[in-house]
Please model this.
Amino acid sequence: MRLRQSLPLLVAAALAGPAALLPTPALAATPAPAAAPAAQAPAAHAPAAPLPFGAEIAAPGTEELGRTAAPLPPELLGQALQPAGTAVQTGPQQTPRHPAATSAKHALTAQAAPAAAGCLPADFASRSGADLVSFVQGSTTDCVNTLFNVTGTDTAGVFKQSQMLAVADAFKAQAAHYTGDNSANILQLVLFLRAGYYVQSNNAGTVGPYDASLTGAVQAGLDAFFASAHWHDVSDANGTVLNEVLVLTDSANIQSRYLKVYQQVLDGYDNGYNAFPKMVKAVNAVLYAPLWRANWNPDYVNTIAADPAVITSLATFAQRHKDLLGTANQFLDVNAGNDLARTAGDGGAVATFTRPLVKQVLDGTPIAGSTGPLYVYTAYNANRYDNASCSYYGTCDLPGKLTAAVLPNTLECDNRTIRTEDLTPAELATVCASLRGEDTFFHGMVKDSGPIAGQYGKTITLAVFANRDDYLTYSWAIYNNSTDNGGQTVMDVTDPANKPVSVMYKKSYNDGFPANVWNLNHEYTHYLDNIYDMKGNFTTEISVPDIWWIEGVAEYESYTYRGTTDTQAMAEAATHRYKLSTVFQNTYDNSDTVRTYPWGYLAVRYMLEKHPADVQNMLGHFRTGDYQGGYAVYNGLGTSYDADFDAWLDACAGGACYADGPTALFGQSVDGATVTLTDKSVETNSQAKLASWHWTFGDGSSSDQQNPVHTYANPGTYTVALTVTDSAGKTASTPTSVVVTTGGGTTPLPTCTDPRTDALGQNCARPNQARAAGGLDYFYVYLPAGTSTLKVNTSGGTGNASLYYNADTWASPTAFTASSTNPGTTQSLTVTNPTAGYRYISLYANTDFSGVTVSTQF
Model:
């Protein structure tokens, strides 16, 4: 089988001339099928096509503590990924939910932004034909995006078929002259069409039907767009438009017509795209929209059965771009494996063709390490959609296989099984001892009479990953939990097969938890609370506003049992941000992280200390499943405790709620890249004195000064953590974020990830270069369109080496367009406004040199 090269590679090589053709990395070729596959309909069990995607929205980026939840169903796991911080709207408008109560891992609903004047549904509904088209194109993209959330009777006025036809015809006219950007406001037309499909799918009875005439009009516009000269320009300006156009092919459910387009997008991608985030998103649009979702479409499946070239493109992409794994753009490679595995579930000739490609990806991808995400998502979806072939893939017990690979260390601790990635035996013993002691503390706090009768799950597994990345990669596929959080307890006490698990991970800095396992005691409290206090499943538990207790008691126990001050809660107490009667109404819908956690802690602490009888009355109802009765206990208090709570907050913030012993506190002052840190730690109810201080700055450096000053090399948000130790040997730790907007120096660039060792890249380096006197060390780099400056530097090592650059052929002392020939190995050159394509760099050994690092920045 012939291996394809991406279009940019072929074009760049042709421009450089025959001598500049670069050998391409070998890919494992898939054997061609013995005969062309016959058309095959989707498997009979396949459900109807999914509804069109809504608008792109911001996904939460915070590490929520998480809570008890039932395991997520398979259809909500292993879904196509989006770039960090983004998601797409998949259902009618709702208020955003707390991540622990959100049903889908990658499908968050959006809250509509308020429409600006001149951007109301009526402004669109009152226009038609050319007037509507002019108004749409004269609106901002933010304005048009609000139309995804049109509801009620407005939906028909805005999106009835005649309105959509007018905009589709305008899109066709604009697409024929597309310039590679949104200078003609074509994007607004595309967004309007996407919004129409989305709203109509959720309000078909109100909007009315869409028939073949609309499909034909939209198809004509798409055909014109993909026939234009600039639709494949590699630029952010084009990527912004192309992303939405590619999703529109899916919204209109005509994916089978654009298989060659999808192939061009996948085959054309190379690492030069990474300089253009919007173009990267456009490539991902193919992967997360049509190639993920269209497997439900019989026309699509029949078409790929007749011509499976796009399946080959998926497999080639997954194999070729493993260098993306472990980088910010790894979702591209993971989604290629996702889509490939999902396609294996289409049955018939499609499955026959696809299965060897899936197996090839799995067999060539280690489970652990940076390649883990590709293996896990590919294996999960192979199991999900082609489970009959699991023995062929080696994935029949995928959770067991993953657990053995990444959680190999186990300790049985009474009714608890602790599985960890990298905890030592001593650390495992520390965790076990902490959990044993917590049981006693919990029972003394809630004064229960034993486990609630008839509930299941008296044993628990605690899974501890080494870091957040591994938690995100493996946890959901093993334990069916959502991972948009900092840990989660998964259980359903009403299910006889219930096997509770608390999943968590270690922090990279000291946060004061046993063995540095973040949320260990918080999550275990959720388990205890469910066994001894809360009758019924998750839905029953949250049938009333009781999140102040559910999350508050987990926070309170975590800090109080460990003898640690909740410094965030103390800072919040000083603000008097909420009344107690307000916190009592906390739900996962109406509360952010501050109202949920530190204010839940304060409410629970106040009630346990000042009104324990009310707490016991409430829990008495919860333990019988009478949640309305339990709610009536504290809701009936009205505002009667608010004034006392307010006064208690003053005392709390003043030190009355500090744990005995040391509390780590500090202030910060940022000036450019430099942060000045001022220790404000205190010792409470103890004769001991603060004796030592240890700071970590979040950039790999640390200090043992009491009041250090630290300069960051690069701008960014860093976690600074202070650990104080008193003269009695007791410690306390507190982390916080520090934001610096400028850099005060340079940090080593990461090693270039291209498998070819002579390939440089964007903002990366090749260390440990060496040559004997008279030798040349050759490199090349691909520059994307729009690169304004290329900087090449060498440093370190020993000897004497000169640096040469050539735009057209391999660089040398007799063939260069720029050079740096200082004595030694420290060289630097800058090329301004280079054109796109492959460029060539070399180090010439004036004497023997070794240990030299070569880097490129653009």
Notes: The first helix runs from residue 7 to 16. Residues 661-740 form a domain with the Immunoglobulin-like fold (CATH 2.60.40.10). The radius of gyration is 30 Å.
